[in-house]
Specification:
By secondary structure, this protein is mainly alpha-helical. The chain contains 10 helices and no strands. Helix content is about 80%, strand content about 0%. The model has no long low-confidence stretch (mean pLDDT about 80).
Length: about 260
């Protein structure tokens, strides 16, 4: 494996994560599978550990910039953390099942989740660009001061946490869509809140993957070496650069990656 190339590519992924809050696992896991020929189970486990620290660094930066809604992070995390643990239990079941070859099944599962997540996020972005008035008829904003609002947030967090625990995908992408739809955060707070909740979720999921033995530290370290400075650069740029054009490019890339995962699995 070319570890220097892995570090360079991870630097650019880190910029995307810091700038938009999306694209970390969605890009790194397929990159490990396709570019570096890493088995899917090892790619998922190593990526979760690498992405966890990446998101922690990004969340600290956004906390300094005061671009985090902590109440939203709290109630989503209450659901997402146990949801991710259930996803890990499912992952372990398939890992030891004699009826499933997880290294063949997992890329297809990742591709399907990635395609759905990207399609929903891209549609939402296009609607906001082409029909700005449609925002006026969007779903009502969740009120976290009410029991029903908190319950819905916990359930949403649990569902998405399960997907993250199983595939490592959507800790940023799908949560970002939920934050836009149900919490209607402004662009900067959306990114900071998304990265902050992902840091909690991925830290807990990382512990599970360490226990499952699916983490390869020779992969994790080069990712950290490249991605951590990239996240800091991206978080800084988040204050100044428009993200719509970049998001459209990312979504196009993610669709092509997810389609390839579905075709080759």
């Amino acid at each position: 494996m070319d570890y220097s190339l892995l570090a360079v590519l991870s630097f650019f992924v880190g910029i995307i994560v810091g700038l938009t809050g999306i694209g970390g696992a969605s890009l790194i896991t397929p990159m490990l599978i396709f570019v570096f020929q890493v088995p899917a189970t090892t790619a998922v486990g190593s990526d979760v550990v690498a992405a966890g620290l990446m998101k922690v660094v990004g969340s600290v930066r956004h906390w300094q910039q005061k671009t985090i809604e902590f109440a939203v992070v709290k109630w989503l995390a209450i659901g997402s953390v146990p949801g991710s643990l259930l996803g890990l239990v499912t992952f372990r079941y398939f890992q030891h099942s004699v009826f499933w070859d997880l290294d063949r099944v997992l890329p297809r599962a990742i591709g399907l989740v990635l395609l759905i997540v990207t399609a929903l996020a891209a549609i939402d972005l296009l609607i906001s660009l082409l029909f700005p008035s449609a925002r006026s008829i969007s779903l009502p904003k969740l009120n976290l001061d009410t029991r029903s609002g908190r319950t819905i947030a916990i359930v949403l967090g649990a569902i998405l946490g399960y997907l993250v625990g199983l595939t490592s995908i959507s800790s940023g992408s799908l949560f970002a869509l939920v934050l836009m739809t149900f919490f209607q955060l402004d662009a900067r707070k959306l990114v900071g809140t998304d990265i902050s909740q992902a840091s909690i979720l991925l830290t807990c999921t990382s512990i599970g993957h360490l226990g499952l033995g699916t983490v390869d530290w020779s992969i994790v370290l080069p990712i950290w070496l490249g991605a951590l400075p990239g996240v800091l650069v991206g978080a800084r740029l988040c204050q100044f650069l428009p993200k719509n054009a970049l998001q459209i490019l990312i979504y196009g890339l993610l669709v092509s990656v997810s389609w390839r995962l579905l075709q080759t699995a």
